[in-house]
TrEMBL record, chain A:
Keyword annotations: Metal-binding, Nucleus, Zinc, Zinc-finger
GO molecular function, one term: nucleic acid binding
Entry keyword Metal-binding: yes
Alphabetical list of InterPro entries matching this protein: Matrin/U1-like-C_Znf_C2H2, Snu23, Znf_C2H2_sf, Znf_C2H2_type
Pfam family, one: zf-met
Biased composition (Basic and acidic residues): 154-186
Protein name: C2H2-type domain-containing protein
Automatic annotation (TrEMBL), chain B:
Top-level lineage group: Eukaryota
A Pfam entry, by short name: PRP38
Protein's name in the database: Pre-mRNA-splicing factor 38
Organism from which the protein derives: Endocarpon pusillum
GO terms under cellular component: spliceosomal complex
Signal peptide: none
Example of a GO biological process term: mRNA splicing, via spliceosome
Keywords per UniProt: mRNA processing, mRNA splicing, Nucleus, Spliceosome
């Protein structure tokens, strides 16, 4: 077939791994199919227009994944950072990347987080991201498993908090010890200072304090 | 089996084909005005989308107060939004009991949520037999009011569900009185686990001030009623 009599172009192409070498018949069949689909779509759109309706490309439900719950909050904060001033009169769901909340999958920009979330929930967005919008119903076993998972997560967090608390307590104890140690050190220093003073004179002075006298005695 | 992530089929009242509770779409158990506030709220749009009875637990374990609506704008609490989501999901009875018992032991707000759902959706006899055991649950609950929060206890909340006609921005459908169901032999007389203690207390009081109070009073009310329920 085509790959047997290599042209200069094909030889060059085969050197680069990222280029797929098409089987011509496969390629032609694919092109024919796409052309048929386009033609069919054009006819359907034309017929819909005659009836005064808007035509939508049918969705192949078999290829869609079930929709699931959000893993967390929609991260609005990180998007706000990217957005700049919103131009006056910006329409809802503006085509293309603009100032505001941008949906990559649909190439639409929304001016506030509520509109953006509404878009994320919309049929249009779900289909564009390969989701059916249908959620699998939970069984009793699903609920039990979920409770177990959440319980385990809670325990782990409690453990972690406890550990952090202990570290915190250790740190506080250590700090208190340090302070006490420093204070003891300071008292010792003062005592020695006094003693040295007393020792220097060698004479017991009348008005020397209690500590001074102690220094001399010792 | 599946359901719509945005609960659209449950919310569409005219074309509704899902399970009925007391002959109607369960969402109608919440008043229309409150329903609209729920479905317009950010919590509903962001946090309730795509939940099923298992993933709803992720949200329920994060609840930190009960309540209906709050603030001047009468915003719905996450508690009420999740209760409403449950009404669109109509989980099987065993699942609700799992929420109440296994889940409720660990997370008090999950128990409160399930109890509220039980009061709205179960049959009268089941409501009493399912909820009464929790009249001994003395754990504290925070409740969000129009302004600020108040502190209450689980047993008070359960008592409210069994005896009042409104709770959490929702008018509770008329539940036949306990006595009525007892008279129809549908319910056994309830002996409060606290009854022995109450009797003892009565005896002690009688011994102390020598006041021979009518002994029938202690056994008259099978439910431990909150002080505000009468008067
Ligand atoms: Zn999108």
């Amino acid at each position: 077939m085509s790959h047997l009599k290599k042209t200069a172009y094909e030889a060059a192409a085969s050197d680069t791994d990222f280029r797929k070498t098409w089987d011509r018949s496969e390629y032609e069949a694919k092109a024919k199919k796409e052309q048929d689909e386009r033609r069919e779509e054009g006819r359907a759109r034309y017929e819909a227009k005659l009836e005064g309706k808007k035509w939508h490309k049918p969705v192949d439900f078999s290829t869609l994944d079930a929709t699931s719950s959000r893993a967390g909050r929609v991260d609005v904060a990180s998007m706000v950072g990217k957005s700049t001033l919103i131009p006056a009169g910006s329409a809802i769901g503006k085509r293309g990347r603009g100032a505001g909340f941008y949906c990559e999958a649909c190439d639409l920009t929304y001016k506030d987080n509520v509109q953006y979330i509404e878009h994320l929930n919309s049929k249009q967005h779900l289909f564009n991201t390969g989701q059916s919008g249908e959620v699998a119903r939970a069984t009793l076993q699903d609920v039990r498993n979920r409770l177990e998972m959440l319980k385990q997560r809670k325990r782990e967090r409690e453990e972690e908090d406890k550990r952090m608390g202990e570290i915190d307590l250790d740190a506080r104890l250590k700090k208190t010890e340090d302070i006490e140690e420093r204070e003891r050190e300071e008292r010792r220093r003062k005592r020695n200072e006094k003693r040295r003073k007393g020792g220097q004179n060698g004479i017991k002075t009348e008005d020397s304090g209690w500590e001074g006298r102690l220094g001399i005695i010792s | 089996m599946t359901h719509r992530a945005d609960a659209s089929s449950a919310l569409d009242n005219r074309g509704y084909a899902g399970p009925l509770i007391r002959g109607a779409n369960p969402i109608t158990l919440i008043e229309t005005a409150v329903r609209d506030r729920i479905t317009e709220s950010l919590y509903w749009k962001e946090q309730c989308f795509g939940l099923n009875a298992a993933t709803l637990l992720d949200r329920a374990v994060d609840l930190s107060y009960i309540g209906g609506t709050y603030g001047v704008g009468m915003r719905p609490t996450p508690f009420l939004c999740l209760a409403f989501k449950l009404l669109t999901l109509t989980p099987e009875k065993e699942i609700v009991l799992e929420y109440l018992n296994m889940g409720g032991e660990e997370w008090k707000y999950l128990r409160a949520l399930a109890a509220f759902y039980v009061r709205l959706t179960f049959e009268p006899v089941d409501i009493y037999t399912t909820l009464e055991p929790f009249l001994t649950d003395a754990r504290k609950l925070r409740r969000r009011r129009k302004e600020g929060y108040v502190l209450m206890h689980m047993d008070e909340f359960i008592d409210e569900l069994l005896t009042k006609d409104r709770s959490c921005a929702t008018s509770l459908w008329k539940l036949p009185g306990r006595q009525q169901l007892e008279d129809l032999d549908m319910l056994e007389e309830r002996v409060s686990p606290l009854q022995a203690e109450l009797d003892e207390l009565d005896e002690m009081e009688q011994d102390q001030d020598g006041d021979p109070r009518n002994g029938s009073e202690s056994g008259a009310s099978p439910l431990v009623r909150s002080s505000s329920s009468e008067g």
